[in-house]
Amino acid sequence: MPRIVVDAMGSDDHPTPDVQGSVDAARAYGVEIILVGDEAKIGPALAAASPGRLPIRIVHAPEMLTMEDKGEDLAFKARHKDAKNSMAVGMDLVKKGEADAFVTAGNTGAAMVTALFRLGRIRGVERPGLAPIFPTASGFCVVLDIGANPDCKPENLLQFAILGSVYAEKVRGVKHPKVGLVSNGEEEGKGNELVKAATPLLKQAKINYFGNVEGKEVIGGSVDVAVTDGFTGNVMLKSSEAVAKMLVDKIRETIKGGSLLTKIGGLLVKPALGSIKKVLDPSEQGAAPLLGINGLVFIGHGRSNAFAIQNAIRVANDAVEANVIGAMKSAIEENLKG
After folding, report:
1. Are residue 202 and residue 123 in the same domain, yes or no?
2. pTM here?
């Protein structure tokens, strides 16, 4: 039975959604849940969620990392061997082999720094990348990095491409995933100096390299994995989310303020709009994997509700069952030899 650690102090409204989502996931997916955080706060939330005899236990961690933790202070709290914050305690369980994956809806930067200090990187990976799933016209696309590394070297993009390709194949079930390099033009030779320098590296790598892709090709479903630096990826993510929300809101406003015929039409298309909203809803994926870390770490939105936490645990469970870390180690080693 996969063992998933959940940072019960992660979400903005902790610990209620973190705990409720964990209970729902344990019931739905047959996983063991280890809730890490302040036991005095987690205990009542867990009792209220009526876990029954589900395999859920609490590991006490009296401290937590917040958005206020930065710089040297954050580094100290992330690496200190006796750290008592929920992220450090939870990731140590993974490192010791007492758990298989770690899920948090806490501070992304804090989670990344803690993961680097507590779990380390896969050999051959210089920087880990955060890789959410983008909805596309033909399904979904793994995009990395989306914020962990604003400034990258060509070698970082090569590593992202390998990691993303393995994740898409092993966890998403995509055979021979097509990997694209995000640029401002489809033709080879387009792009900034980073893209131009990364192109020959990706062409030589043992991946199914598609070539340059513009943002419209990513959304259009031309590739299964899109590789970029964290600055560009973050702009893509935030812009896509904002446009999706705006379109749904505008459609609702138009129907609500329209004629009787418009409102009747709105009722008829309501099921279809609901399906579209579901595809665009980040909570459906729950969390993004931090690829390149020597352990499974998944990071969700701070505003995650119980449904998002449940889905984050589902995705983490899928990665555990796919042995994705072992596959990534093999792929990186193979490309280093090549």
Report:
1. no
2. 0.90
> 208 — phi, psi (to 5°)?
-90, 80
The C-alpha angle with vertex 301 and arms to 299 and 306, in degrees rounded to 5, equals: 100
Query: With the C-alpha atoms ordered 330, 102, 292, 13, is the resulting torsion angle positive or negative?
Result: positive
Residue 337 is assigned to a structural domain of this protein: no
Q: Which of 93, 34, 94, 38 is nearest to 63 (CA)?
A: 38
Residues 137 and 207 in one domain: yes
- Cα–Cα distance measured from residue 227 to residue 143, given in angstroms and rounded to the nearest whole number: 6
Q: Is 302 a member of any domain?
A: yes
The whole-angstrom separation of Cα 44 and Cα 42 is: 6
Residue 49 and residue 42 in contact, taking contact as beta carbons nearer than 8 Å: no
Sheet (strand 139-144) strand order: 133-136, 139-144, 225-227, 178-182, 208-213
Alpha-carbon gap, residue 311 to 329, rounded angstroms: 26
Q: Tell me which residue range forms the domain holding 290.
A: 3-129+285-330
Residue 80 in tokens: 């200190």
pLDDT along the chain (338 residues), means of 10: 95 96 96 97 96 96 84 81 92 96 94 94 93 87 88 94 95 94 88 93 94 92 94 87 81 81 73 64 79 96 93 95 94 80
Cα–Cα distance measured from residue 331 to residue 278, given in angstroms and rounded to the nearest whole number: 33
In 267-327, at which residue ranges do the beta strands (DSSP E only) sit? 288-291, 296-299
